[in-house]
Amino acid sequence: MLVTPWHACDNRLVGPLNVESDMSIRILLAEDHKMVREGLRGLLESQPDMEVVAEAGDGRAAMQLVQETSPDVVVMDVVMPDLNGIEATRQVVVRSPGVKVVALSMYSDTRFITGMLSAGASGYVLKDCAIEELVQAIHTVAENQTYLSPGITQIVVRDYIDHLDKMRPSAFSLLTAREREVLQLLAEGMTMKEIAYQLDLGVKTVETHRQQIMEKLDTHSIAELTKYAIREGLTSLDK
Q1: Rounded Cα–Cα distance for residues 191 and 189 (Å)
Q2: Does domain 13-164 sit in CATH 3.30.70.3300?
């Protein structure tokens, strides 16, 4: 049994705990509420393959204890005194690349989620989740994978889509619904007359739509329009 002297307990730097198994996932808890820490420690240590090797009450203490105890996973609160979880995660990942961080937070705001993930966290779990979910998250990141609570996944995907929309204009932002219909049919090889019949439009109207599409996309041939339509997901090569 490895017994490490305790640090003076000021509710921030609690220090290393007793360690027994070399096969367990070694966990550091970084949480500024002592009662929450104690509850999490008890729940995690009830798992047969997990042990809590240290606790910290703020981000700065967490960084110090990562260096001292070399945990496999840090369960990191996002909002903590002295040094917040986002900045602590960023520094932990830089200084100890092998250590995985799971964010445990009551906040599902995009700014906290993207902040932690951008800082290098491998997981994000909400505090109101069941302990089984946190255990699953720890197992997942310990295997070099990413874990996000189901509700968090939706937020991340939505934020990613919003980011893409802002980064570059797409067919859905540049073209009207009718122009997208015409573009798809053009890319699928239909003639002006066939498109007019398919959409119940006049041939001249279809030609006007084609001209407007080319002007908006700055393209000069059907081949270019076809490539664009495939790239934007309006059609595929299988059509």
Answers
A1: 7
A2: no
User: What pLDDT, in 10s, does the model give residues 178-206?
Assistant: 999 999 999 999 999 999 999 999 999 99
Is the distance from CB of 143 to CB of 135 less than 8 angstroms? no
Closest by alpha carbon to 187, among 215, 210, 207, 203? 210
DSSP state of 212: H
Fold of 171-231: Arc Repressor Mutant, subunit A (1.10.10)
Cβ atoms of 113 and 149 closer than 8 Å: no
Parallel/antiparallel/unpaired status of strands 147-148 and 73-77: unpaired
Position 46 scores a pLDDT of 95
Sign, CA torsion 124/129/134/136: negative
Q: For 13-45, write each residue's pLDDT tens digit.
A: 555 544 444 579 999 999 999 999 999 999 999
Q: Where in the chain is the domain with CATH 1.10.10.10?
A: 171-231
Q: Are 149 and 124 in contact (CB under 8 A)?
A: yes
Percent of the chain with pLDDT over 90: 62
**In this structure, are strands 73-77 and 100-105 parallel, antiparallel, or unpaired?**
parallel
Six-digit token string for 101: 């961080």
Domain with CATH 3.40.50.2300 in the chain: 13-164
For β-strands 25-30 and 73-77, DSSP reports them as parallel
